[in-house]
Design a protein that fits this description.
By secondary structure, the chain is an alpha+beta fold. It is 31% helix and 25% strand. A hairpin with a 3-residue loop joins β21 (574-582) and β22 (586-591). Residues 104-136, 416-435 are annotated as: Disordered. Keywords: Acetylation, Endosome, Golgi apparatus, Lipid transport, Lipid-binding, Membrane, Phosphoprotein, Transport.
């Protein structure tokens, strides 16, 4: 191939925490399939300082920046490298990937096909397997030393002949039988005493042995496909590649040991049966419901997610789950175990981002476009801390299509920051009276009301729409978010695709904004959340914009939860405010006049949202819909929570199947599709325009 060229040049290589990054001269040897490096170009004639075999390697551009990438060899050795710019990184990555693919395919082609392709680990291994009577540790050592001994000689591994592969197959059969015996022995241990079946080390051993056998099984299958491909030239179109052994269903693997079979419908709790028969789609009214804020009561629920107990007890399930996932896999359709859920819906989590309504309302009180943009940035950065419930990373419930959440906040007017010349009297008295009468049905009050509504408007892809408004201050925000989650190894990344628009009707301004990515880190130990990525806030009318960077923790050193940003006037390219700090701790705002302001998020007052009691909520409002799951999680009954969760998900699947069969489109309740986004059916800007038109006609 023209692209199979030998390239060389300087790259930075990460060595360790002490030495850090160092320039080294790298050489890609395509003929040998090697990546070598030297101290410098002059020492190229000497022995390389390091060499990586590229066959079976994985070349991965880093998410940290546009310059870094890693080379992960099949041996487990890794090079973390950094080019001078994005273009040079792409050049190296593409050439390395081509070389890697060429030599990986060559290994498969050089191995002859097996005599039989009907081998399945599922049919092999039992208590009578050869060698079972020997000590398991001896068997494991002898089994894994086969490959280790050959590789340690440093010589080229000879191509395995069919009889050699048969030997490996027999060893795999023995290992499979031993692994099953190991699982059986662990599960037969008592649940209490000195050594129990719930011992953490034994659970880890059980999960990793299962994952290891799955991996070996998959590798064996790949070899069979390669040999068959060599014999037939290529796989026929439409060929389906299946696992040799059926994997355990993620949805059912909630307990230690085998999959859990849920009882038949007649044995289910009455509450679960009720959930499944809440209402047929044709019986549900999709007409928007006007929620009276006076019916809402101050929320007394305070579910902090600081409990690690369930995660610690179910670590084997997490390990098994990880063994089923592959890097970059989309987790949208993966059913996650119940014990990692936090006790609220994703729709309610979006509402909790509004827990500082005083800062939200104060945005429109800014006397200048510059001040309003800065106030919006301040509100935006303070919203994420309260949106998280505790330091432990847990996942909110995936909303059911058609699910809604309503709440409101009441904020005393005296607690909202104002500026001279900018207050509620800025618009005419007649307009205030009309808005108050038509929209609120109340007389002048000593507090502002912020109303919030969210709806799950789509299931695949999972899209949520949410809307909040403060009628008295003539401001509202409309947003739609599509959550895309991916498996990243020891972490999970969630991309928030979508856009929000804040409308300040008093000033005729619209601020568009996006949301950062979220990452659940250290999912095998103490899972924690960090935000990452760049977001932008723009106001087309005023020409002001803000650029905010949420920094993920670097490979070594550095602070957690760091955020930096700046606000500037686009016309003059003048920076009017800079911000730095941590999004869950202290933020520092530095203004163009030299003044500095510190905001300690841990000391900011939180206004509790107001929610209707469960008995007044509709069947598809979040808290009523998920109440049995939430109650079971509070009681620590994971099995019962799982049953309720499965019932809801099964109901959703059945209704989706019915709509597909009858070709009935889903009808949303509060949000309408406009272009690529979703807009609230009765936004404040339409209401205010109607009021203003009415006043014009009257005059």
């Amino acid at each position: 191939s023209d692209h199979m060229e030998n390239i060389c040049g300087y790259l930075m290589k990460y060595t360790n925490l002490v030495t850090g990054w160092q320039y080294r001269f790298f050489v890609l040897n395509n003929d040998a399939g090697l990546l070598e490096y030297f101290v410098n170009e002059q020492s190229r004639q000497l022995k390389p300082r390091g060499t990586l075999q590229l066959a079976g390697a994985v070349i991965s551009p880093s998410d940290e920046d546009s310059h870094t990438f890693t080379v992960n060899a099949a041996s487990g050795e890794q090079y973390k490298l950094r080019a001078t710019d994005a273009k040079e990184r792409q050049h190296w990555v593409s050439r390395l990937q081509i070389c890697t693919q060429h030599h990986t395919e060559a290994i498969g082609k050089n191995n002859p096909p097996l005599k039989s392709r009907s081998f399945s680990l599922a049919s092999q291994g039992s208590a009578n397997s050869p060698g079972v009577q020997r000590r398991p540790s001896q068997n494991a050592v002898s089994f894994f030393n086969v490959g280790h001994h050959r590789l340690s000689t440093g010589k080229r591994v000879p191509i395995m002949q069919p009889d050699h592969l048969v030997d490996v197959r027999e060893m795999m059969s023995q290992a499979e039988g031993q692994q099953k015996d190991l699982i059986r022995s662990i599960e037969c241990l008592p649940v209490s005493g000195h050594l129990t079946s719930l011992d953490q080390d034994l659970l880890m051993l059980k999960a990793t042995s299962m994952a290891t056998m799955n991996c070996l099984n998959d590798c064996f299958h790949i070899l069979q496909l390669q040999h068959a491909s060599q014999q037939k030239g290529s796989l026929p179109a439409g060929t389906t590649i299946n696992w040799l052994e059926p994997k355990i269903s993620l949805a059912n693997h909630f307990k230690n040991g085998a999959a859990q079979n849920f009882p038949a419908e007649i044995n289910k709790p009455a509450s679960v049966r009720e959930e499944q028969t809440v209402a047929e789609p044709c019986q549900l009214t999709r007409e928007p419901e006007e929620i009276n804020p006076d019916e809402e009561l101050e929320d007394i629920c305070d579910d902090k997610e600081d409990d690690l107990g369930a995660v610690e007890e179910q670590r084997s399930v997490i390990l098994h789950l990880l063994s089923q996932l592959k890097l970059g896999m989309d987790l949208t359709r993966v059913v996650l175990p119940t014990f990692i859920l936090e006790k609220r819906s994703l729709l309610e989590m979006y509402a909790d981002f509004m827990s500082h309504p005083d800062l939200f309302i104060a945005i429109t009180n800014g006397t200048t476009p510059e001040e309003r943009m800065i106030r919006f940035v301040e509100y935006y950065l303070t919203s994420f801390h309260e949106g998280r419930k505790g330091a432990i990373a847990k996942k909110p419930y995936n909303p059911i299509i058609g699910e809604t959440f309503h709440c409101s906040w009441r904020m005393p007017k005296s607690d909202v920051a104002t500026d001279a010349g900018s207050n509620s009297s800025a618009h005419s008295a007649s307009e205030q009276v009309t808005l108050s009468k038509d929209l609120e049905g109340q007389k002048e009050l000593d507090y502002y009301t912020v109303k919030f509504v969210a709806e799950q408007v789509s299931h695949h892809p999972p899209v949520s729409g949410f809307y909040a408004e403060c009628v008295e201050r003539k401001m509202c925000v409309n947003a739609h978010v599509w959550t895309k989650s991916k498996f990243l190894g020891m972490s999970i990344g969630v991309t928030m695709v979508g856009e929000g628009v804040l409308s300040l009707l008093e000033h005729g301004e619209e601020y568009t904004f996006s949301l950062p990515c979220a990452y659940a880190r250290s999912i095998l130990t103490v899972p924690w959340v960090e935000l990452g990525g760049k977001v932008n806030i723009n106001c087309l009318k005023t020409g002001y914009s803000a650029s905010i960077n949420f920094h993920t923790k670097p490979f070594y050193g550095g602070k957690l939860h760091r955020v930096t940003g700046e606000v500037k006037q686009n016309t003059t390219n003048t920076v009017v405010c800079r911000v730095q700090g941590e999004w869950n701790s202290v933020l520092e705002f530095t203004y163009s006049n030299g003044e500095t302001k510190y905001v300690d998020l841990t000391k900011l007052s939180v206004t509790r949202k107001r929610v209707r009691p469960l008995e007044k909520q509709g069947p598809f409002e979040s808290r009523r819909l998920w109440q049995h799951v939430t109650e079971s999680l509070r009681d620590g009954d994971i099995d019962k929570a799982t049953e309720h969760k499965r019932a809801l998900e099964e109901q959703q699947r059945n209704e989706e199947r019915l709509r597909a069969e009858t070709e009935t489109p889903w009808c949303t309740k509060y949000f309408l599709k406009e272009g690529d986004g979703w807009v609230y059916h009765k936004p404040l800007w339409k209401t205010v325009s109607a009021v203003q038109s009415q006043q014009t006609d009257t005059n």
